[in-house]
Specification:
CATH class of the largest domain: Alpha Beta
CATH architecture of the largest domain: 3-Layer(aba) Sandwich
Distance between the termini: 35 Å
CATH topology of the largest domain: D-Maltodextrin-Binding Protein, domain 2
Number of domains: 2
Strand content: 5-15%
Radius of gyration: 22 Å
């Protein structure tokens, strides 16, 4: 599920699995003069197949560099603990797929290359990458990775259910009051239809959907001074109150499955009116035969601010300058326009580069996923989570607060107090409430 890409790992647990990955790194300079690189792409099925095809093309056209995609079966969801344990064990890849929200913590390692110089001297065509993707790949003003995938959040709605309920389709510029009213009208206990859904696992999947609401109300994840969270007061309370109102009206399907997989299943079954989802969900909805539409995120203001979830290619230092240069050369090739479009199609990503729209195959890419243009267009309204080491703990505090409120264990006010207290503790010097 593409949704899982917006999560993050538990960096504190990786020491427990360090022995498991010993010897799994690979990559070196061979005796023949060929530089061997290990590439942990973390993909499955079609996306991994396309990665293998591209790597084979690169190897044929670059005889002095050989890239291997043998990563021992590691997927994107398990990438952070395996990479970090590998760093501890001295056996790690040259290149790995990393969730954007994990990058700041990974950047604490001296083994993660600083790519700032490579972007300045033209080795990497930095200005061609989408703005939100560049922001996620930048930590404390330094480029620490290369964008690999971009997603944005919108509202996918079931046209048939809207028509049966006599509700007009969402229009551009709609607001959260309209969203709430539509969700309540769509909810029908006799048919088992629920208006909308929210992940209730208490993890990042529960958290990240609330940030666009906070931003629309003038709040931030972290206040400008960096010393406290920026969602205290109206931004947090009004956002939580709206979610609470939907839950009390029984207009929310609460998903407790890993990665919120059941939301898409319920939508495909014709039992969910609206899903706050991203472009990653479209292939599944198409396979499910749902006649769907896509709307921008509702707003509390005149700006339909949404959230983007970019992920990155991280390049690691093995103490060999030529090897590092070879890794950068490979990623520069892999993310060049023609290769990048093939990767975007296979991975379900929005264009990570602005110049892929000029390619002959771009129109076919759009046609393959109806309404994909809505998510691409929505990127201009997108913001990203702060790339800071404290974000996982801030998210954990917010996720726990939202989950408890969804199950009526706390009021919006109590939930906000808990989220603020936990977030501020994460930003404090001790990190202890």
């Amino acid at each position: 599920m593409r949704r899982a890409r917006l999560g993050f790992g538990a960096i504190a647990l990786v020491a427990l699995v360090a022995m498991v990955v010993s010897g799994c790194g690979g990559g070196s300079s061979s005796g023949s003069g060929t530089i061997e690189l290990s590439f942990w792409d973390g993909q499955t099925q079609r996306a991994h197949k396309v990665v293998e095809e591209l790597v084979e093309e690169f190897n044929k056209s670059h005889p002095k560099i050989h890239v291997s995609t043998n990563s021992g079966g590691v997927t994107s969801d398990t990438m952070l603990p395996k990479v970090t344990a590998g760093l501890q064990a001295g056996s790690y890849p040259d290149i790995a797929y990393i969730f954007g929200s994990d990058l700041a913590n990974l950047a604490k390692s001296e083994k993660l290359l600083d790519l700032t110089e490579a972007t300045e001297d033209g080795e990497l065509e930095w200005s061609k990458f989408d703005k939100v993707a560049r922001e996620t790949a930048t930590v404390e003003g330094k480029v620490r990775a290369v964008p690999s995938l971009v997603e944005s959040l919108g509202v996918v709605y079931n046209k048939k259910l809207f028509e049966e309920a006599g509700i007009p389709f969402p229009k551009e510029g709609w607001n959260w009051d309209e969203f709430r009213e539509d969700a309540i009208k769509l909810t029908n206990s006799s048919t088992g239809v629920v208006g909308t859904a929210w992940p209730a696992t208490g993890d990042e999947d529960t958290t990240w959907r609330i940030w666009p609401m906070v931003w629309q109300l003038g709040g931030e994840v972290v206040a400008p001074d960096g010393e406290k969270v920026g969602y205290e007061g109206e931004p947090g309370l009004k956002s939580l109150t709206l979610i609470d109102e939907l839950a009390k009206a029984h207009a929310l399907y609460l998903d407790t499955s890993a990665g919120s997989e059941r939301i898409n299943q319920v939508f495909n079954a014709g039992k969910l009116g609206m899903a706050m989802a991203g472009n990653w969900a479209l292939p599944e909805f198409i396979e499910g035969g749902v006649d769907y539409g896509v709307a921008e995120m509702p707003s509390f203001s005149s700006e339909p601010i949404t959230i983007a979830g970019p992920d990155v290619w991280a390049i690691f230092d093995h103490g060999d300058e030529e090897r590092s240069k070879a890794a950068i050369e490979f990623i520069a090739w892999f993310t060049a326009p023609k290769q990048n479009l093939r990767w975007d199609e296979a991975s379900g990503s929005l264009p990570t580069r602005t110049d892929v729209a000029e390619l002959p195959g771009y129109a076919a890419y759009l046609k393959r996923l109806p309404h994909l243009e809505s998510f691409i267009e929505n990127l201009k309204n997108a913001r990203v989570r702060p790339t800071i080491t404290q974000y996982p703990e801030i998210s954990k505090a917010m996720g726990k607060a939202v989950s408890e409120m969804l199950y009526a264990r706390s009021s919006p006010e109590e939930a906000l107090n808990g989220a603020v207290e936990g977030g501020n503790a994460a930003l404090s010097s001790t990190g202890v409430p």
